[in-house]
Write a structure and sequence with these properties.
Blueprint (H helix, E strand, L loop, with lengths): L3 E4 L5 H12 L3 E6 L2 H15 L3 E5 L5 H9 L10 E4 L15 H29 L2 E6 L12 H21 L4 E8 L2 E2 L2 H5 L4 H7 L6 E2 H13 L8 E4 L16
The structure holds NADPH dihydro-nicotinamide-adenine-dinucleotide phosphate (NDP) and 2-hydroxyethylsulfonic acid.
């Protein structure tokens, strides 16, 4: 049966691949991101290609008021949200703690932690009304292990892991499932954003091995979302075969 899937950070990478996957399986989508032209183009393409309904929200998840207003103003038939994929997030910089840029720290904390909280707090009442729903938080291997110079990004993803556990406990009586999907190295715009647009530096992150694609991760998220109501994946860590931990890779750089 067709469900309504609410995806944050759908303008690129894992979120965009989730939009593609859930659209191809005939669900209706609410897709969010800050880049209007990307959200607009994706909405049009998915509607045409798959004959489904897509609602685009141009939204900065850091803006608490905008998040609450946008969700409050959803048309009636969009208010039964079945699955929320809290995916919007980013890393900014890779530097020792004493070298870090506080503006980057704030952007990561405000997006990865506070943005996830704002969107969840606005969507949960819609799920509570139906006594059902599924929140899937996108964590990271960085939320399992801290790696050198990853300090604040890793801390935000550890917070996502902790919030996922807390949300699961608090939403248990309402029958709302809460899952975390934590990918390892996935080639998206992630490293381009992390390195402030330096495409070569970003490309080097994935050199000498086959990273996950955004669609690899979306397929796993789709699996997690497709299990029967009495089955929940609490926490799922997936990595490229060539990656054994946050820092151990098998690379062929010849
Ligand atoms: P991308 O940079 O390709 O996508 C990030 C998405 O987040 C974009 O759609 C971006 O949209 C959105 N976003 C960022 N900031 C905001 C904001 N303030 N408000 C709304 N949307 C925002 O990276 P990925 O697809 O790789 O990242 C998706 C998630 O996966 C992140 O949470 C990331 O931490 C996590 N992750 C990524 C891994 C990787 O190796 N790539 C591994 C593990 C986890 P826009 O710019 O239009 O707002
Ligand atoms: C993204 C994966 O290892 O770059 O969360 O932190 S990593």
């Amino acid at each position: 049966m067709s469900k309504t899937i609410f995806i944050t950070g759908a303008s690129s990478g894992i979120g965009e691949a989730c939009a593609e996957k859930f659209a191809s399986t005939k669900n209706q989508l609410i897709i969010c991101g800050r880049r209007e032209e990307k959200i607009h183009a994706l909405r049009k393409r998915l509607e045409t290609q798959y004959g489904i309904a897509v609602l685009g929200l141009i939204l900065d998840v850091r803006d608490k008021e905008a998040v609450h207003n946008a969700i409050k103003k959803l048309p009636y038939h969009w208010k039964k949200v079945d699955v929320l994929i809290n995916n919007a997030g980013l890393a900014k910089g890779l530097s020792g703690i004493d070298q870090g840029n506080s503006v980057d720290w704030e952007q990561m904390i405000d997006t990865n932690i506070k943005g996830l909280l704002y969107v969840s707090q606005a969507v949960i009442p819609l799920m509570k009304k139906n006594n059902s729903g599924h929140i899937i938080n996108i964590g990271s291997i960085a939320g399992v292990e801290t790696y050198p110079k990853g300090n604040v990004y890793c801390a935000t993803k550890h917070a996502v892991a902790s919030l996922t556990r807390g949300m699961r406990m608090d939403l248990l009586p309402q029958g709302i499932k809460v899952s975390q999907v934590s990918p390892g190295a996935t080639e998206t715009e992630f490293s381009i954003v992390r390195f402030d647009g330096d495409k070569q530096k970003a490309k080097d992150v994935y050199k000498g091995y086959k990273p996950l694609t955004a669609m690899d991760v979306a397929e796993v998220i789709y699996f997690v979302a497709s299990l029967p109501p009495h089955v929940n994946v609490n926490d799922l860590l997936l990595m490229p075969t060539a990656q054994a931990s946050a820092t151990v890779f098998h690379k062929n750089n010849s």
